[in-house]
Amino acid sequence: MSDKPIILYWIRRDLRVADNPALTNALKTGAEVIPVFIYDDWFSHLGAAPKFRLEKSLESLLKRYADLGSYVIIRKGPSITVLRELIKETGATSVIWSRDLDPVAISRDSKIKKDLKESGVSVTSYRGQVLFEPWTVSTKTGGFYRVYTPFWNSVRDRSVEPPFEAPNFVSSPSKKPVTLTVKDLNLASGMSRGRKVLSQYVEAGELAAQNKLKKFLDGPVVNYSEDRNIPQLNGTSSLSDHLAWGEISPNQCWHSTFPMVLDGVHGSETFLKELVWRDFAYHLIYHTPHIVSENWRSEWDAFPWRIDPNHDDVIAWKQGRTGIPFVDAAMREMYVTGRMHNRGRMIVASFLTKHLMTHWRIGLDWFSDCLIDWDPASNAMGWQWSAGSGPDATPYFRVFNPVTQLQKFDPNGIYTKRWIAELSEKPSASSLSYFNAMPKHWNFNEESVYPSPITSPEEGRNRALEAYSSRGF
Questions:
Q1: What total number of domains does the chain contain?
Q2: How many angstroms separate the CA atoms of 280 and 120, rounded?
Q3: Residue 95 belongs to a domain with what CATH number?
Q4: CATH code at position 427
Q5: Mean local confidence (pLDDT), 40-61
Q6: Do residues 21 and 128 make contact, with C-beta atoms less than 8 angstroms apart?
Q7: Of 77, 171, 332, 393, which is most buried, counting CB atoms within 10 Å of its CB?
């Protein structure tokens, strides 16, 4: 196809061109680069909202590459099969990618790297998901960190690799390999009637991500330490989905923020701590991959959690019909926007695993289906942290009271009225949109009577503490 060497750049969750070490290093060689996205088993097993968000990201990425004089090839099937086919079709002699750090991706990539190298193909992987790759951070005894604060203290003064600039041009072979379109992947089908509602809350692509970061650092970061806990405020960066899909790198976020830390800007270091908290999740998923599906602490294996995902209490929790306003508002916010405020995440997770004594895996699976910022490491660590079964966990005896938490963080009911139509004489548009997003078979609407609590905070807390005590926790 070309007289120049050809490199296949395998795109995964690194849907950007700026600060993309794999792409940058490929272009430095002078070779022609063929960017390829492969819809393999890793992506096919995603939930409905993550797939929908992926579609938007891919559409944005294709426009980005077109502006750079290139294209993105889209194929579907086992990654090794697709890569072999493209190598044969194009004569490519090298394959590159950005490292994924979850256990499924590591297993896939290790096999592919071995297979291709044995076939004489050069394979190179680069950093991309985290600030500090897990094998570069260790305790004084050479182990891995199990608690966040020591992890933060060990990396806070380390240098972070500066981000690479975006290329001005991507040289690709003029003969474009056969490709699917984004629509061919049918990524939005699982959203059903909620697709139109969710679309209003998605801003995809790296340019949108960079604009959000700039907007955040121009103002809200100053009060971030306090405002990030108040759900009715726009006090966070709103970058979680962009980071999850690699539309912006943590290095870009770090280097944009770190000068503000040196200048003593209030809130800026707290934001960096949140970036490192995300790194900590990948540190754990790398060193203890069982965190994604099993109790991180094996002593919790005998804990008497409910395991029925169709229990009436679980259904009420999923539908935002528990009768506990903070829980219900957060669950409805997620169903409409694909996101949930972090304070809400802690409340709904604590309520499910402690007040309702339900296994954290049920919550993890529901979040995996509903979040556009779903991330395998953060989701797993967050749920186990809340349940008490994980590393650096909120102690088992700490059971968030969703009523007093609401009084503290939403005393005027602004957040709850934003998302629960039944609590307002004149429901907001956002609260009404929930009924256009939810499945019709749930069979309730803004005219329905808001339910009584399925359990009281006191009753749920006492039940949880009794279970902990009886099991010797």
A1: 3
A2: 36
A3: 3.40.50.620
A4: 1.10.579.10
A5: 98
A6: yes
A7: 332
CA-based radius of gyration for the chain: 23
Q: State if pTM tops 0.85.
A: yes
Residues 306 and 437 both lie in one domain: yes
Asked whether residue 351 falls in the same domain as residue 262, the answer is no
Residue 173 maps to a domain: no
**Owning domain of residue 22:** 6-128
- 62 pLDDT higher than 80: yes
Q: What is the tens place of the pLDDT at every residue in 127-178?
A: 989 999 999 999 999 999 999 999 999 999 999 999 999 999 999 999 999 9
- How far is 217 from 245, CA to CA, in rounded Å? 21
Q: Is residue 188 part of a domain?
A: no
DSSP character at residue 306:
B
CB 33 within 8 A of CB 70: yes
Q: Is the domain of 207 the same as that of 108?
A: no
Same domain, 348 and 460: yes
Q: Is residue 88 included in any domain, yes or no?
A: yes
C-alpha–C-alpha distance, residues 319 and 327, integer Å: 10
Interstrand relation of 32-39 and 122-126 (parallel, antiparallel or unpaired): unpaired
Phi then psi for residue 126, to 5 deg, are -135, 165
Q: How far apart are CA 367 and CA 379, in angstroms?
A: 8
281: which 2 tokens?
Answer: 């999740």
Q: Tell me phi and psi for residue 364, to 5 degrees.
A: -55, -45
Instruction: Return all residues near 211 (Cβ < 8 A) that are at least 6 apart.
Output: none
Residue 74, Cβ density class (10 Å: 0-12 exposed, 13-18 middle, ≥19 buried): buried
Instruction: Give, rounded to a whole angstrom, the gap between the first and last alpha carbons of the chain.
Output: 65
Q: What is the pLDDT of residue 396?
A: 65
Task: Say yes or no: 322 and 404 in one domain.
Answer: yes
**Count, residues in the chain:** 473
Which residues make Cβ contacts (< 8 Å) with residue 231, sequence separation at least 6? 329, 330, 341, 343, 344, 409, 410, 415
Tokens 């121009």, residue located: 218
Q: What is the number of alpha carbons within 13 Å of residue 333 lying toward its C-beta? A: 21
CA angle 202, 335, 60 (to 5 degrees): 20
Same domain, 308 and 443: yes
Contact 335, 434 (CB under 8 A): yes
Same domain? For 152 and 224 the reply is yes
